[in-house]
Amino acid sequence: MHFSGLRVIREALTGHKGWKPLWRNPEPQPAYDYIIVGGGGHGLATAYYLAKTFGRARIAVLEKSWLGSGNIGRNTTIIRSNYLLPGNEPFYEFSMKLWEGLEQEFNFNAMVSQRGILNLCHTDAQRDAFRRRGNAMLLAGADAELLDREQVRAMAPFLNFDNARFPIKGGLLQRRAGTARHDGVAWGYARGADMRGVDLIQNCEVTGFRIDGGRISGVETTRGYIAAGTVGVAVAGSSSRVMAMAGMRLPIESHVLQAFVSEGLKPTIPGVITFGAGHFYVSQSDKGGLVFGGDIDGYNSYAQRGNLPVIEDVAEGGMALMPMIGRARLLRVWGGIMDMSMDGSPIIDRTPVEGLYLNAGWCYGGFKATPASGYAFAHLLATGRPHETASAYRLDRFTRGYVIDEKGVGAQPNLH
Amino acid sequence: MLIPHPLLGLRDAQEFTYLGDAVLLNRPDGMAEGAEAAFAEYVYLRDNPAGVHRELWFHEQGDRSWLVVTRDTTTHEILGAELARDVKLKGGAA
Ligand SMILES: Cc1cc2nc3c(=O)[nH]c(=O)nc-3n(C[C@H](O)[C@H](O)[C@H](O)COP(=O)(O)OP(=O)(O)OC[C@H]3O[C@@H](n4cnc5c(N)ncnc54)[C@H](O)[C@@H]3O)c2cc1C
To answer: Which of A233, A271, A253, A220 is nearest to A343 (CA)?
Structure first.
């Protein structure tokens, strides 16, 4: 089923009777060549590129709940490539370029909207750091502009420019950044993978790995044993739990991050605005709700809900930055569990078990990475070699001393 | 969350900062054989369990003591708290 404007018109005229489910609901086969564990954004994108770009077949995605029930459907949908370090920036810019062609690529409306991201700065030192980051972005082929206070005021006149503690001095703008419809991304990849023969198996939790002589031979699941020569794990906040079943300890702690949405309002926020100093960021969804968030709660958690102190902290940050937000009513607050890594950067690598591969450690920034993460993981599964933009995301970088620590805070996951 | 401080009674978790798994009390001997590998593990690797977790909290806005708090990471229920000093003197946080 191909989506197009013509198709929408035809369906409108014929009572919408021709729409079909976007994917099959197959029974698991006894064996596959490739098993992807986790039907979130990264797992689905991996299966998609594995089938489409790398031409592989006999692929299954095993998801313990329904597709997109994890962080892919819980995040605040920001996509951007405004990193500093050489291990990161080329990867995120590769992802940004994939976002730019994504909807044509998988023929699905993911509502990719390049409305820009503006990071605010409040001191000379911060401005210098932004200038350096902007230059690093330009070197990697991304776009970046340093704005002064008046340029920021022209974009967002409603901000409080004269906050006593954090007066706004300027900002770093990436115009090509923006937002995308998170569920749409999962559905688009799922549909594209299914169309190419990938079995998407829901309500199928992986409960163990079968390892013979240091080599993977399959996975135990709640729907029986399934054999596979290559298994890729992309389970986001559950990485430590799942890899423990293969006898591994990871450089990861699971933490909860909360997000917030207000009632629908008329268009007011021009793009994404981040107030890092005040632990607050905000954008406006196409439905009009203000979508915002702040820092993680800061303690190990698998609860998928946070506590009130962080809600208060985020509300304070919002009031300090844009006092008018106090008039908006909050509709919903929710939480998601993310794997916070020891340096704040992800892992896409093989493991000591031959045939078992790991995609993990995405912290609070893995949504923007979805296309490149899927592409790079598929590359690794198909060829056995890391993709050129993901070659720094090794599992052993911690012991070798090659950490990728954007914030420079050390092995303390709740500070990244 | 309220943390039952052994000396001060129930205190708001907001008064504390969080460090992580209490195995950090078991610092390896830097002079021992295989210290490099032991330190890499100590600094970077964690069990990260879903369920009961023993973890270090610092009473920064209070009496500045370190506590070992036992907490369920799936519910946030706090099951107990001891002075980290006592735990260490008893032989660490296994
Ligand atoms: C509140 C919040 C806001 C965020 N905002 C942003 C943002 O603005 N921009 C950004 O870039 N990132 C953001 N993130 C981060 C981003 O959402 C995640 O890094 C990313 O979605 C993780 O990858 P995923 O989509 O594959 O994860 P998930 O969707 O969580 O997929 C993992 C899947 O694995 C499944 N699974 C787990 N265990 C098993 C098992 N044993 N067997 C089978 N399946 C299993 C889970 O059910 C889940 O569906 C945010 C996260 C949160 C929580």
So the answer is: A253
A307 and B76: CB-CB below 8 Å? yes
Closest CA relative to residue A39, chosen from A75, A76, A64: A64
- The per-residue b/e assignment along A274-283, b for 16 or more CB within 10 angstroms, e otherwise, is bbbbbbbbbb
Give the residues across from A37 on adjacent strands: A62, A233
B19 contacts in chain A (CB < 8 Å) = 412
Using the Cβ of B34 and the Cβ atoms of chain A, whether some distance falls under 8 Å is answered with no
Residue type, A5: G
* Half-sphere exposure (Cβ direction) of A80: Cα atoms closer than 13 Å: 25
At residue B94, the pLDDT reads: 57
Ligand 1, closest atom to CA A337?
53
The atom of ligand 1 lying closest to the CA of A259 is 1
**Residue A138: band (very low, low, confident or very high) from pLDDT cuts 50, 70, 90:** very high
Contact A334, A345 (CB under 8 A): no
Give the pTM.
Answer: 0.97
Burial status of residue A375 (CB atoms within 10 A of its CB: 0-12, 13-18, 19 or more)? buried
Is A123's C-beta closer than 6 angstroms to any atom of ligand 1? no
Task: Please judge whether A250 and B55 are an interchain contact, meaning their C-beta atoms are less than 8 angstroms apart.
Answer: no
In contact, A125 and A182? CB cutoff 8 Å: no
Q: Report which of A34, A48, A119, A63 is spatially closest to residue A372, judged by C-alpha positions.
A: A48
Q: Is B85 part of the contact surface with chain A (CB cutoff 8 Å)?
A: no
Closest to A292 in 3D by CA, of A307, A274, A305, A304: A274
Q: How many angstroms is it from A388 CA to the middle of ligand 1?
A: 24
CB contact under 8 A, A254 and B50: yes
CA A305, CA A298: separation in Å to the nearest integer?
12
With an 8 Å Cβ cutoff, is A66 touching chain B?
no
Looking from the CA of residue A242, the nearest atom of ligand 1 is 41
A15-58 pLDDT tens trace: 999 999 999 999 999 999 999 999 999 999 999 999 999 999 99
Contact (CB<8Å) B37/A399 = yes
Q: Does the structure show a pLDDT above 70 at A82? A: yes
CA of A264 to nearest chain B CA: how many angstroms apart? Answer: 32
Query: Count of A–B CB contacts within 8 Å?
Result: 68
Ordered structural domains, chain B, with CATH:
2-89 (3.30.2270.10)
* Structural domains for chain A: 22-78+182-251+343-415 (3.50.50.60), 112-179+253-341 (3.30.9.10)
Decide if A253 and B20 are in contact by the 8 Å CB cutoff: yes
pLDDT of residue A1 exceeding 90: no
